[in-house]
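In the laboratory, one determines a bound structure by crystallizing the protein with its ligand and collecting diffraction data. In a computational setting the workflow is compressed into a single prediction: the sequence and the ligand go in, and a structural description comes out. We illustrate the idea with 6-phosphogluconic acid.
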Amino acid sequence: MRTLSLPRAPGTEVLVLENASAVALEGARRFVRLARETLAHQSRFSVALSGGSTPKAMHALLAHAPWRDQVDWTRVHVFWGDERFVPPDHSESSYLMAKQTLLDHVPLPATNIHPMPTVDCTPDQAAQRYTGVLKNFFAPKPPRFDLVFLGLGPDGHTASLFPSSPAPPEIALVSVVTQSPKPPPIRLTLTYRVFNAAAHVLFLAEGAGKAETLRLVFDPSVTHKFIPAKGVQPTQGTLTWILDEPAAAHIQDG
Ligand code: 6PG
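The predicted complex, in structure-token form:
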């Protein structure tokens, strides 16, 4: 593992590991460490999961020994950073992916699982309902996740914040995307307001296909309007990028 020394905001760390397996292992290791540290002084640990394929290997590690047995899952609460607006049993559902790769394998009470609503409501109603879920869970304080996992799309999107997405209202916690360039087209996503309030944000990105995007992520001349992932800058939290060597190959370091 190597840490990039490139110019970055305080609290930001950029780790480069040998390969995708090492990225998954570091992600699992950090989840367990943050969960244990948080639960040592809090009654609950709130985490927002990411969709896509990258998290699957990390989920699989967390779903089995030794990592599975190092977390008090009864005090973990699982949310999603975004969701495709499809039924929860649909092959494209991020909830289904997490259920199959992680949630079905750990002793997490069903009441601790907080999926974004995607049936029996419109997308706008779903966004309103999930806003209520977040407000109720974190009340009386504003929503502040203990940990947020995020991925990076080749176009610089993260969660379902795309370069083409209209900026949601500043106060919005959850917004609707209707023309996602990454199918399915209709999605729900947490906003920068939520992501940037988090205590810890972990980006996992791997593979040569992300190398050019990551060069832009760490290019100070490029804004988050062009690369939405750059808009994630926790105001009072840590930001960690966990990359593999192929993904980090184009980053200008030092
Ligand atoms: C989704 C994710 C999305 C994902 C990136 C990276 O709904 O697909 O929220 O933001 O994290 O597109 O996806 P991969 O991990 O598959 O490269």
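The helical segments are 20-39, 55-62, 94-101, 123-138, 192-195, 211-217, 245-248. Keep in mind that any predicted model is a hypothesis to be tested, not a measurement.
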